[in-house]
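Priority: low. Protein: Glutamate--tRNA ligase. Input follows.
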Amino acid sequence: MASSDGGNGGEKRQVVTRFAPSPTGFLHIGNARTGLFSWLYARHEGGKALLRIEDTDKKRSTQEAIDVILDGLDWLGLEFDEEPVFQSERAERHAEVAMKLVEAGKAYKCFATPEELAEMRNAQRAAKQPMRYDGRWRDRDASEAPADAPFTVRIKTPEGGETVIEDAVQGRVKVDNREIDDFILLRADGTPTYMLAVVVDDMDMGCTHIIRGDDHLNNAFRQIQVIDAMQGIEDGWDRPTYAHVPLIHGNDGAKLSKRHGAMGVDAYRDELGILPEALFNYLLRLGWGHGDQEEFSREEAIALFDIADVGKGPSRFDMKKLLNMNGHYIRAAEDERLAALTVKRIGPDADEALLAEAMPVLKTRARDLNELADGAAFLFKQRPLEMTEKAAGLLDDEARSRLSSISNRFAAETDWTIEALEATLKTYAEELDLGLGKLAQPLRAALTGQTTSPGIFDVLVLLGREESLARIDAQVAA
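Result:
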C-alpha cells in the first residue's frame, strides 16, 4: 500500500501509526497483535510508530498495569519512536477542541437533564424505535436554559447522506448518517468522552493510519464526524486511513477466552515459558501470511508486511501451533541464553554453567522453557532421589541386581564418554541376551528418578562419573 496522501493533492505524508492500549489490566494477546501490526506497518513504510496510553478510566487504570504493558511491548521488541502519550494528561486540549466546535456551530450545548433523557429513551423503547438522542437542543439557543444549568457538548452530525470508509482491511464500508446521533463530546462535568479524546489525540499525534481491532469499526463512523467538523477550524485534520483487523478466535471458532489462551503477554513469558521471537512470529501469522512461509526474522517481517494483506476473516489461536513454533526457536537459540532463562525455573541448586553444557541435549525436544527446566531437573537432584511411581516400579530386585553389575562395569571404564559407555552397556545386554532398553530404563530411573529424560548416555556424561555411580549405588542399596 502506498503512503497516505491525506487529501493533500497527492502529496505523500510520512506514515505514522499508533498503538493505544488501555491500562486496565494485562497486555491482552489480541491487543499485542494489533500493536505488532501497527508497529510493523510503520517500519515497513519507513514511518513512525507511536504509543499512547489511554488511561482516562482512573478507577481501573493503574501504574502497575501501565508498567506491565510497557514491559510486554519491550519484551516483544516493539520499540516506539517517541515517548508514550498519556491521554489523561490531555483533557484540557480535548475540551478546547469541543468548545472550538461549539463556537463554529459544529457542536452545541445540550441542557437535557438525566430525567428527560430517561423519559426520551423509555418513549423510544415503548414505540420500538432505535434509542438515540433526538436532537432536542440541536437548534435551540443556550439562553433558553436556566442560568448555570449543567450541560453536555454534543456534535452536530449530518442529517442526511452517508459516511463512507475505504478501510485498508475491510474494504469499502458505509453507514447511513441518520443512524449516527448527536453523540456527546464533553460530559456535564467537563471531562471528554472516549470518542472525542481518541480523535483529538490521533490528529495531534499526526497519525496517518489507524490500525486497530474491527470491534472499533462502528466507532470510526462517529470519530470521522469530529475529524470532518474540525476541517477549516484547525489545520492537520485530515482523515486517516483506517485498517480494522478482525479479532482472534479460539481454535474452535468461538470468541477467544482464557480457555483458548487469552492471557497477557507476561503470562506467555513467565508462566508458559515462550520466547519473545516465537510469540512475535506467531502473532505475525495470525491473519497475515506470505505464501507458505512459517518463520520470519524481524527483518523479513518488516520487509514483507503490508496491512492490506491482512485477511478479512477472524484468525484462530492454536496453542499447539504456538508451542511447536516455540520449540523451533528454542532449538535455534544460543545455549547460554536458554540456560540463563531456565535456571530460575529449576531452583536455587541449579548451576547455569552445567545447564548451558546440557542444552544441546535438553533442547532437542522441549517446546517451552518449563519443559526445558523439567528435563534438566535431574541434574540438580539431591540423593536419595525422589522417585516417580513409574520409576519406582522399574526398580525391582532383578533390576537392582543388574544395576549392581552395571555399576561395576562403569566403575572400571576409563573413558567416560557416550561412545564408551554405550559400548559397555551393549556388551552387558548381549551377555544377558536382552534388548538395550531392558537395562536402560531401570538405569534411567536410578539416575533421574523418572522414566523420561534425555538419552541415557547423555545423562551419564552430564552427571559425570562420580555422581552417576553414586546414584546407581544408592538404588542398589535401597
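The mean pLDDT is 93. Residues 456-477 form the longest helix (22 residues).
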